[in-house]
Design brief:
Blueprint: E1 6-10, H1 17-31, E2 40-44, H2 50-57, E3 63-67, H3 84-89, E4 94-97, H4 100-105, H5 110-122, E5 126-131, H6 135-139, H7 143-153, E6 166-170, H8 184-201, H9 204-209, E7 212-214, H10 220-227, E8 234-237, H11 244-256
Parallel strand pairs: 1-2, 1-8, 2-3, 3-4, 4-5, 5-6, 6-7, 7-8
Helix pairs in contact: 1-2, 8-10, 10-11
C-alpha cells in the first residue's frame, strides 16, 4: 500500500509576522533533515505569511506550504477573498476546504463547499477537505450516517479524474480545541467507514489511494497510537503545529509507523 503519509499543520489565525517566520524557518530546517519522501509535511500559515513561507520552503523538498481557505470564484468583486487562481499563481500547493470552523462560524454549507472544491481542484490545487460530526450527532449514534451525507453532497459529486489531488480529513468537531480526543479505535472506525464509502461510490482503487487524515486536538502523546491504525494516514494538526518540538514529534511518529 503506497498511500501518501501526511502531517499538516494548520496555524489558523495565530502568530505575528516575526514569530510566524521564525516558526516557518525552524520547521523548514527540521524538515530538510527528514528522509526524502518518508512523509509529506505541509504548513498552513495565515495569508499574510504565505509568500515569504513559500520562498523559504523552496530550499527543501520535504515540506510544502498551503492556504487555509479560498473563494470559489477565480476573480471579481469579492473584497477580502482569495481565489484558487491567485493561490496557484503564488505556487501554493494545497488549500484547506470545509474546516469545521468555516462550516460553523461562517455558515459554509455543503453546496457552497462543493463550489470551492470544484474550483480549487480545477485550478490544479491539492485540497484537504474536512468532514466531521458534532458531539450531539455522535451521542445520538448518527455519526456514520452524517459523514455519509456530507460526502454525498460534496466529494461524491466530483469527477473521479480530480480525485488524485484530494485528501480527506476527518475532524470530529467535539474534539477540536477541547483537549478531548477520539480514541484510536474511534478514529479507525470512522476512517474505515470513509474508505468503504469511497469503495462503494467510486472504486476500490480510488479508496486505497486516497489519504484520510485525522484532525481533532492531535498531540504527540496520542499520535503514535493513531498512526498505528491501518486507515489513519496522517494528521491535520491544530494547536500543536504552533510548537516546533510538538509538531516535529508528530511527524517523527508518522515516519516510524510508515
Amino acid at each position: 500500500m503506497n498511500r501518501r503519509k501526511i502531517v499538516a499543520g494548520n496555524w489558523k489565525m495565530n502568530k505575528d509576522l516575526f514569530d510566524g517566520m521564525r516558526l516557518a524557518s525552524e520547521l523548514i530546517s527540521d524538515s530538510s533533515k527528514l528522509p526524502s519522501k518518508s512523509v509529506e509535511v505541509i504548513i498552513f500559515p495565515p495569508f499574510p505569511f504565505l509568500h515569504t513561507s513559500i520562498s523559504m520552503a523552496k530550499r527543501v523538498e520535504q515540506i510544502t506550504v498551503g492556504a487555509q481557505n479560498c473563494h470559489h470564484e477565480r476573480s471579481g468583486a469579492f473584497t477580502g477573498e482569495v481565489s484558487p487562481s491567485l493561490l496557484k499563481s503564488m505556487e501554493i500547493d494545497y488549500v484547506i476546504i470545509g474546516h469545521s470552523e468555516r462550516r460553523t462560524l461562517f455558515n459554509e454549507s455543503d453546496s457552497f463547499l462543493l463550489k470551492k472544491l470544484i474550483s480549487a481542484l480545477n485550478c490544479g490545487l491539492k485540497v484537504i477537505f474536512c468532514i466531521g460530526e458534532s458531539l450531539d450527532i455522535r451521542e445520538k449514534g448518527h455519526h456514520l450516517s452524517h459523514i455519509k451525507d456530507q460526502l454525498e453532497k460534496t466529494v461524491f459529486k466530483l469527477d473521479p479524474e480530480v480525485l488524485p489531488n484530494l485528501v480527506i480529513a476527518y475532524e470530529p468537531i467535539w474534539a477540536i480545541g477541547t483537549g478531548v480526543n477520539a480514541t484510536a479505535d474511534q478514529a479507525q472506525e470512522m476512517h474505515h467507514h470513509i474508505r468503504q464509502l469511497l469503495v462503494d461510490h467510486f472504486s476500490e482503487g480510488i479508496a486505497i489511494e486516497m489519504p484520510v487524515l485525522y484532525g481533532g486536538s492531535v498531540k504527540p502523546a496520542i499520535s503514535k497510537e493513531l498512526f498505528s491504525q491501518p486507515d489513519v494516514d496522517g494528521a491535520l494538526v491544530g494547536g500543536a503545529s504552533l510548537d516546533r518540538d510538538s509538531f516535529m514529534e508528530i511527524v517523527a511518529h508518522r515516519i516510524k509507523n510508515n
